[in-house]
Amino acid sequence: MKYSWATTVVASSSLLATAVSAASADDWTKRSVYQVVTDRFALGNGSSPSCDTSQKKYCGGNWQGIINHLDYIQDMGFDAIWISPVVENVQGTTTEGEAYHGYWPQNINSLNTNFGSADDLKSLSSALHDKGMHLMVDVVVNHVVANPTNTSSVWPETFDYSLLQPFGAANSFHTQCFISDYNNQTDVEQCWLGDSGLPLLDLDTENSTVVDTMYSWIKNLVSDYDIDGLRVDTAKHIRQDFWPDFASNAGVYTVAEILIGNVTYAAPYTKGLDSVLDYPTYYAVYNAFTNGTSGNMSTIAEMVNQAQDQYNHGTFYVGSFVENQDNPRIQSTVSDQAIVKNMMTWPFINDGIPILYYGQEQGYQGGNDPANREALWLSGFNTENKPLVTHVKTLNAARKQAISANSSFLTTKASFISQSSSTSTLAISKPPFLTLLTNVGSGSSSSASWSIPSSAGLYSGKETLVDVLTCDTVTTEDDGSLSVSASGGLPKVLMPAEALSKSGSLCGSQASGAMGLRGLNVGMMGAAVGAILAGMMLV
Ligand SMILES: *[C@@H]1O[C@H](CO)[C@@H](O)[C@H](O)[C@H]1NC(C)=O
Ligand SMILES: *[C@@H]1O[C@H](CO)[C@@H](O)[C@H](O)[C@H]1NC(C)=O
Ligand SMILES: *[C@@H]1O[C@H](CO)[C@@H](O)[C@H](O)[C@H]1NC(C)=O
Ligand SMILES: *[C@@H]1O[C@H](CO)[C@@H](O)[C@H](O)[C@H]1NC(C)=O
Ligand SMILES: *[C@@H]1O[C@H](CO)[C@@H](O)[C@H](O)[C@H]1NC(C)=O
Ligand SMILES: *[C@@H]1O[C@H](CO)[C@@H](O)[C@H](O)[C@H]1NC(C)=O
Ligand SMILES: *[C@@H]1O[C@H](CO)[C@@H](O)[C@H](O)[C@H]1NC(C)=O
Ligand SMILES: *[C@@H]1O[C@H](CO)[C@@H](O)[C@H](O)[C@H]1NC(C)=O
Asked: Which residue in 242, 302, 428, 443 is a FRET match for 1, CA 20 to 30 A apart?
């Protein structure tokens, strides 16, 4: 691969010209997202109380706490956060504990005062924007929640509807029934989540008054708090044709939770909303890496190919993750740090928008909900001697460098280079990345290697590639082919030395890219100056 400076300069200037719509999906593709459970990230007054996740109670985290620790997030290279739902939730306790996670809205026109005031939320939004970061807010549209008021067996259950604002009456809801058949989409959309102890009252999103209420609510929420993106909870529980107008009222990037490992099922939602959280690939990644070497890495490629084919905009707008608030942390299943590092690498090197769930960088190990919602303040926000903090920092830096080194990075599909001899390795090409993953782990008897044939057409002969996770280099053969062995089961993220900048923090001493391209992309140099420089460099 010969590095084409002139092409990069031209593309950079057109990128500058189009980068006007701040909170569009295209803008989000350049970013990476740090997901926080607001109640569990930080207290605004800096105190550090104990937090027993099994109690399912508020532990005290709030918006001011996030504001106070934005440097912690930004220093790892993230330029967006996703926070818990912000509206007022069911008060006190329920059969499932307190609403500390925010997913049980009660009054959608008020904020959850456990997290702060309207001014606090506005301050969080502006503190983020001052740092060039984006705010993604989680929103629940499918249901609202009140404790049932019937004291004996009554069906349907009874509620104090006056609590459920602005709805206030039974005729705003579907008739009570619990979802019993997930293969019947009407049942999924019109029956209720939860159980008789804690029923989630299912809004009648076939009723135009309810629909209009939700559309104007989202429009106002986004504008009142200057929100840049929305994570849309339980989206598959509302009819698909509800979503396009919801998205246009929101006017910002929307990513839907479609909790299913089936690409064909998820695909239609990428038309009404910008995209989906990439659950199908998440499940493939989780199973491939947590079953020892009997995990089949090729299933990841198969799933990604399906998603690239079937989703609107391919997988460029998906949210790509390996942990979240609803799934067990990877270290609850695997402790081998080589496997952990392979899994953590995935979201940063594929087509989607990387999302990291708070605490992963600190090595948190909580299993299923509620164990996976640990208090981050108990880590002391310590970043010294934290190998996974370093790993995340490097992955964010690598992705930023890839974006600035190749203007096609964000719009070219990742592809897989067949590793015919093994189901324990995966080679993913997304120039300038060539990422090599393996599930063999760090055991002394395990080994893995990858082969990239010259027919893949990726490299020229005797080209120097740098593994940006270690700064070790490898050199291609005369014909451009490459053979690499894993060391200790660790992943490799290879970039051409020419795609790195000597002045950059990412393996600068291995770089052969003379000036670094970042200056061009951040607009410090006009295209004309760039073209002159490019001419000089070609001499
Ligand atoms: C940039 O990416 C495109 C698409 O993957 C690839 O064809 C091209 O070779 C890359 N260019 C450089 C200079 O890396
Ligand atoms: C800090 O805030 C928490 C939650 O609001 C409160 O319970 C605690 O008393 C406060 N601590 C101090 C030292 O102010
Ligand atoms: C209300 O009635 C339902 C149906 O009989 C029952 O399952 C539920 O436990 C009751 N709820 C309360 C709070 O008593
Ligand atoms: C639709 O919902 C509104 C309140 O949100 C209610 O007043 C109206 O009766 C409902 N319509 C039907 C047909 O249920
Ligand atoms: C699907 O679910 C709806 C709502 O529960 C129900 O009315 C309908 O009978 C179900 N259809 C089938 C084929 O079971
Ligand atoms: C996946 O979803 C599609 C569309 O809903 C459905 O037709 C198909 O049967 C599902 N596949 C599996 C394996 O469940
Ligand atoms: C192993 O993979 C299978 C699917 O192939 C999955 O059902 C199982 O949960 C995986 N085991 C672990 C520990 O994740
Ligand atoms: C691994 O997965 C791929 C893609 O699903 C499949 O074609 C292949 O047969 C699987 N190999 C094994 C050994 O299970």
From this structure: 302
Q: Is there a contact between 212 and 247 (Cβ–Cβ < 8 Å)?
A: no
Q: Any binding-site annotation on 237?
A: yes
Q: What residues does ligand 4 touch, defined as CB less than 6 Å away?
A: 167, 171-172, 207, 209-210
Long-range contacts of 212-218, Cβ-Cβ distance < 8 Å, separation of 24 or more: 213/166, 213/167, 214/141, 214/246, 215/245, 215/246, 215/249, 216/249, 217/108, 217/109, 218/139, 218/141, 218/246, 218/249, 218/250
Give me the active site residues, please: 233, 257
Q: Whole-angstrom Cα distance, residue 298 to residue 421?
A: 11
- The Cα 347–Cα 195 span in angstroms is 34
- Site to probe by mutation for ligand 2, drawn from 43, 68, 98, 113 as the one with most ligand atoms within 8 Å of Cβ, is 43
Query: What value does the mean pLDDT take over residues 493-499?
Result: 98
Residue whose tokens read 């109690």:
55
List the structure tokens of 539: 């001499």
Query: How confident is the model at residue 445, as a pLDDT?
Result: 80
CA of 267 to the centre of ligand 5 (A): 23
Asked if residue 537 has pLDDT above 90, the reply is no
- Reported pTM: 0.92
pLDDT at 421: 74
Residue nearest to atom 4 of ligand 2 (CA): 60
- Give the pLDDT of residue 514: 57
Integer Cα distance of 1 and 454 in angstroms: 11
Q: 220: Cβ–Cβ under 8 A, 6 or more apart, which residues?
A: none
Tokens describing residue 212: 């209009």
The two structure tokens encoding residue 485:
């062995």
Q: What is the pLDDT of residue 23?
A: 87
Cα–ligand 3 centroid distance for 146 (angstroms): 13
Please tell me whether 373 is known to bind a ligand: yes
Q: Does 204 belong to an annotated binding site?
A: no
Residue 96 CA, ligand 3 centroid: distance in Å: 15
The strand order across the sheet containing 415-416 reads 415-416, 425-430, 433-438, 492-496, 464-467, 472-475
**Which residue intervals of the chain bear CATH 3.20.20.80?**
27-131+206-407
Q: In sequence order, which residues have a C-beta less than 8 Å from that of residue 309 and are 6 or more positions away?
A: none
Q: Provide the terminal-to-terminal Cα distance of the chain, rounded to the nearest Å.
A: 18
Q: Mean pLDDT over all residues of the chain? A: 92
- Report the distance separating Cα 451 and Cα 319, nearest Å: 30
Nearest-5° Cα angle at 269, 267 to 271: 90
What are the residue ranges of helices labelled H in 322-366? 337-349
> What is residue 94's DSSP assignment?
B
CA of 263 to the centre of ligand 6 (A): 8
Q: Spell out the CATH class of 27-131+206-407.
A: alpha beta
The DSSP code sequence of 51-77 is: --GGG-------HHHHHHTHHHHHHTT
H-state helical runs in 294-371: 298-310, 337-349
- Ligand-binding annotation for 63, yes or no, is no
> What phi and psi values does residue 445 have, to the nearest 5 degrees?
-85, -10
What would you report as the CA-atom Rg of the chain, rounded to the nearest whole angstrom?
A: 24
Counting beta carbons within 10 angstroms of the beta carbon of residue 478, is it exposed (0 to 12), middle (13 to 18) or buried (19 or more)? Answer: exposed
